[in-house]
Amino acid sequence: MAIMSIVVIVLLMGSSCAKLSTNFYSKTCPKLLSTIKPIVQCAVSNEKRMGASLLRLHFHDCFVNGCDGSILLDDTSSFTGEKTARPNNNSLRGYNVIDNIKCKVEEVCPGVVSCADIVAIAARDSVVALEGPNWEVKLGRRDSKTASLSAANSGSLPPPTSSLINLINRFQAVGLSTRDMVALSGAHTIGQARCTSFRTRIHNLTDIDPSFAQKRQRNCPRNEGSGDNNLSPLDLQTPHDFDNAYYKDLIVRKGLLHSDQQLHSGGSTDSVVETYSKYSKKFESDFAAAMIKMGDISPLTGSNGEIRKHCRKPN
Description:
The protein contains 14 helices and two strands. By secondary structure, the chain is mostly helical. Helix 2 (32-46) crosses helix 5 (115-129), helix 3 (49-62) packs antiparallel against helix 5 and helix 11 (245-251) crosses helix 13. The longest helix has 15 residues, at 2-16.
């Protein structure tokens, strides 16, 4: 009887504590990666900004209750999801691309691949499509059955007004080091930001290159309600290339967001920024390693969660 109990416990542990692995679908969906890659490439080719949008989806998914695909869920009668949370509303994009990928993957291997894993793969493929580093994505996540507006609004996602210490603390809270934080911030070498995210910085703050601020002010007036949704590239030099120009911008006080410039403002991360500005390969390798670590944040595995049939709603 005791032996039977031990066996049951081991089986239960195996079903709920399974590890992610790069070959998780090698037998159950061997064509998974080759199915996803061309869809992402097409989406990014049609709109370069989409690469940053898909990468950001993965980040916002993982930082709220782990990498569980909860960011994709629409509101239901039983819960209000994360899409309308302050960090996400009128900001996150790319849901339609994930839907397209899921549709194609279901044709190839129905009921096998989670939406959470699709988001992780799409993020990597987006970086590669914009000439950034490649890495092997660990897989085996399962999808959450719910989402939480309050969790997404709790501050786990650092806002663009964050101080350096807040950035460090928010990343450490999910198991990421200060160096991981600086490397992952390099994702801002692609993508754009809304005027509301940097208005205060370009009009009121002093730790900014004056000519850079003046140029940004033309597209982002001082008064709220005027040009709120106007976009500016986070990296003015090479906005569609995944490179280390973002860090070079920070050194000359041309970070668009306050939280960006905090990485090089006389604090503990200055030296890391300077290293990445000089050595692009070091940035790329650290970024890839940090993305793998971020993908490990509290995934649902084994018998936890589910494999959604449609990414926007629970089964």
